[in-house]
Amino acid sequence: MYYYNDFDASFVAERNRQFRAQVERRIDGSLTEDEFKPLRLMNGLYLQLHAYMLRVAIPYGSLDPAKLRQLAYLAERFDKGYGHFTTRTNIQYNWPQLRDVPEMLDALAEVEMHAIQTSGNTIRNVTSDHFAGAAADEIEDPRPVAELIRQWSTDHPEFQFLPRKFKIAVIASDTDRAVMKSHDVGLRIVERDGVRGFEVWIGGGMGRTPMVAKRLRDFLPRADLLPYLEAILATYNRIGRRDNKYKARIKITVHENGLDEIRAQVEDEFPRRRAVFGGEDQALLAEITAAFAAPAFKNTDPAPYFAARDADPVFRAWSDTNVTAHRTPGYGIVTISLKAHGATPGDASGDQMRLVADLGETYGHGDIRATHAQNLVLPHVPLADIPAVHAALKTLGLATGNIGLASDIIACPGMDYCALATARSIPVAQGIATRLEELKIEHEVGHLQIKISGCINACGHHHVGHIGILGLDRAGVENYQITLGGDASETTAIGSRTGPGFAYDEIVPAVERLIFAYLDLREGEEETFLEVYNRVGMAPFKSALYDAEARAYAAE
Amino acid sequence: MTVIVSDTGFAPEDFNAPITPLAEAESATTALDLAVDTNPAELGDRLGGVTMIRVDFPSSADGRGFSIARQLRLMGYGGRLRARGHVIADQYAMARRSGFDEVEISEALAKRQPEEQWIFRANWQAHDYQARLRG
Predict the structure, then answer these.
(1) Residues of A in contact with B126 (CB under 8 A)
(2) Mean pLDDT, residues A157-174 taken together
(3) Which UniProt keywords apply (chain A) (predicted)?
(4) E strands of A262-412, at which residues?
(5) A546-A547-A548-A552 Cα dihedral, nearest 10 degrees
(6) Which CATH number goes with the domain that contains B96?
(7) Are the beta carbons of B70 and A242 separated by less than 8 Å?
(8) What average pLDDT does the structure give for chain A?
(9) pLDDT tens digits along A275-310
(10) Which of A96, A256, A282, A286 is the most exposed, fewest CB within 10 Å of its CB?
(11) Interface contact flag, A158 B70, Cβ < 8 Å
């Protein structure tokens, strides 16, 4: 795991000193509101519907017990006792007072954290695979590269006032657990002829114009990464649209100019950028890589794990969904669901955070991750210890066995918090999860991703949900559109709209009809919802959605 | 009157030759004004005799000028390089790190953001991740 050196620590301290002065200068009139806004955003401070919101960066989702305990402290000291984990593996505090924010930033700095570039038209918190360092299928741990990008992008003098926000993800396996192709730039570490380098993908994104990223480079040599990213960003900074914020993301720049033209401009810029990198970045990457060395895995007998599975059906069901194979024999990856049926997806109380921190310390080599699906992960737990972890999780409502199932819903904060939202998201997620629990069918249904956004900006990733739900405002009334067939994995796909939307009190029954239609249509338990959709297409689902409704009206 | 900001603080204008917009420049022009939508690559063969370039910042929210400065420096431009317009004190370090020598602001902005607010950011060579990555 990466720990700050003196440079990182003094950088964050200096940055906090600057931000304190900026707040004072806003108050004394030195800065206008228009001037101050980008400055507070690049320090993670939003003005929301009811209050300020502070979004804290969790770089590539990596935490340790001390960091998570401090996040718990912030939740209790400055918020209402909880924090909200987001789809960019950040954590948001929804109720801080403006005057407390500098103190919160200082408290974060104590544990080597900050809120820099979690917002604004900047390069945002870089994300990665939440199973990095533990996944059986990765060719290397992608986090050192992600950390290198974090350092390079932090306070980069050219790229603090881009046309729009810019998101980068790094993965290192065939399986994509980071929605890499929905990023402005997605990087996949690959090997060619025995040499490591990158596949570079560009122009993915969600929002009102969803796009799957396109491949810009098949193979970028490892040492070319930072100058190549600079060439991309400099090109985007120069020609990205600034006349319309909805056309300002690089996906539109790529779409309007064409991939070949963008590639030509990037390749033209690249040699001059490359010439000034003399290898210091690669030396730094080597240091960072050493810091991410795998923990000293123990050789333990996994028998207690299998005994618990045989003895306890609740543990068995939970471990079926929440424990993933680890690359080291005798170990498992434990995903902790923040999706208890009826709870707010991604919320965790201070007590819950402290419990996870303790479990990570006691059983998990001190390594904890936040996922883009708004859950937490203990990536390195000896199988023998997993029954004890499960027993502890049960005490605070953290033992929900639903990872990858229909109630493991991604939802944006929606109109309960967000100033941009046009509809509520959280109550829809709660309603669907509660209904699934009543029906007791989600284990039978199997892998199904439902993703909910409360506005067109798509923070809830609805475009790539197997079932996507988009909440809109139709003449002052909430209306929910459904998309089907979205795919957030390595076979990324944007979902297709089913037809007219549904009212707030109709959306949960509509999802229920889709799920029962799937159960009728599948050829066996092994065929997932997405596979059925890809086999049979929209028509039968559409029929289940709308014909049933028509029949219900006819019966009245 | 405008104010010229450098690492030592405020100073009056000391460049008294005319500065010509790129579109009107001739081969003998040595001082150029660049609009924010200029593509520096197109200046490649005419930088030779130029000793002063001024890049316009129409708004502090528009960061194009930082990349223009960087690109000019990477193309080998070694003359005086100035950011002019709506650049705020908080951007002084970004301007210097991108390759600008100085910033030209209006008297009104200089009054609203007095000299000490710019001096506060004159330590731009410290705490710079880019310097660590490039040696």
Answers:
(1) 14
(2) 98
(3) 4Fe-4S, Heme, Iron, Iron-sulfur, Metal-binding, Oxidoreductase
(4) 323-325, 331-336, 347-349, 368-370, 376-382, 410-411
(5) 100
(6) 3.20.20.70
(7) no
(8) 96
(9) 999 999 999 999 999 999 999 999 999 999 999 999
(10) A286
(11) yes
| Element containing residue B53 per DSSP (H, E) | strand B52-57
Residue A348: is its pLDDT beyond 70?
Answer: yes
- Give the integer Cα–Cα distance in Å for A226 and A203: 18
Residue B59 or residue A556, greater confidence: B59
**CB–CB of A158 and B134 under 8 A?**
no
The 3-class secondary structure across A370-409, one letter per residue, is ECCCCCEEEEEEEHHHHHHHHHHHHCCCCCCCCCCCCCCC
Give the residue on B whose Cα is nearest the Cα of A236.
B64
**How far is residue A19's CA from residue A16's CA, in Å, rounded to a whole number?**
5
> Cβ A38–B98 below 8 Å, yes or no?
no
Does residue B72 belong to any structural domain of this protein? yes
Please tell me the distance from the alpha carbon of residue A238 to that of residue B66, in angstroms, as a whole number.
10
Q: Are the Cβ atoms of B133 and A234 closer than 8 angstroms?
A: no
144-163 of A, contacting B, C-beta below 8 A: 151-152, 154-162
Question: Does the CB of A407 have a partner CB in chain B at under 8 Å?
Answer: no
Look at B90 and A152 and tell me if their CB atoms are within 8 Å.
no
Q: What is the number of domains present in chain B? A: 1
Count of all residues that appear for chain B in the document: 135
A72-78 long-range Cβ contacts below 8 angstroms, 24+ apart: A72/A350, A72/A351, A72/A353, A72/A354, A72/A357, A73/A107, A73/A350, A74/A104, A74/A107, A74/A108, A75/A348, A75/A349, A75/A350, A75/A353, A76/A350, A77/A107, A78/A103, A78/A104
Output the DSSP codes for B13-43. ----S--EEGGG--TT--EEEE-TT--GGGG
- Nearest chain A CA: its distance from B95 CA (Å): 7
Which residue, A477, A545, A484, is CA-closest to A513?
Answer: A545
Check if A6-110 and A410-555 are the same fold. Answer: no
**Residue-number span of the structural domain to which B88 is assigned:** 2-12+30-126
Q: What is the CATH number of domain A142-291?
A: 3.30.413.10
Q: Which of A154, A151, A130 is nearest to A142 (CA)?
A: A130
Domain A303-394 class, CATH top level: alpha beta
Query: Which residue is closest to A35 within chain B, CA to CA?
Result: B60
Domain A6-110 has CATH 3.90.480.20: yes
Q: Return d(Cα A35, Cα A179) in angstroms, integer.
A: 34
Chain B contact set for A2 (CB, 8 A): none
Using the beta-carbon criterion (under 8 Å), do B133 and A226 form an inter-chain contact? yes
A133: distance to nearest CA of chain B, Å? Answer: 25
The size of chain A, in residues, is 556
Query: Would you kindly state where each structural domain of chain A is located, as residue ranges?
Result: 6-110, 142-291, 303-394, 410-555
pTM of the model: 0.96
Assigned token pair, B69: 């400065």
Q: Would residue B104 count as lying in a domain? A: yes
C-beta of residue A435 within 8 angstroms of C-beta of residue A512: yes
Structure tokens belonging to residue A339: 């999706």
CATH topology of domain A410-555: Sulfite Reductase Hemoprotein; domain 1 (3.30.413)
Residue window 28-57, chain B: list those with CB within 8 Å of chain A.
39, 41
Q: How is residue A348 written in tokens?
A: 């965790």
ipTM exceeding 0.90? yes
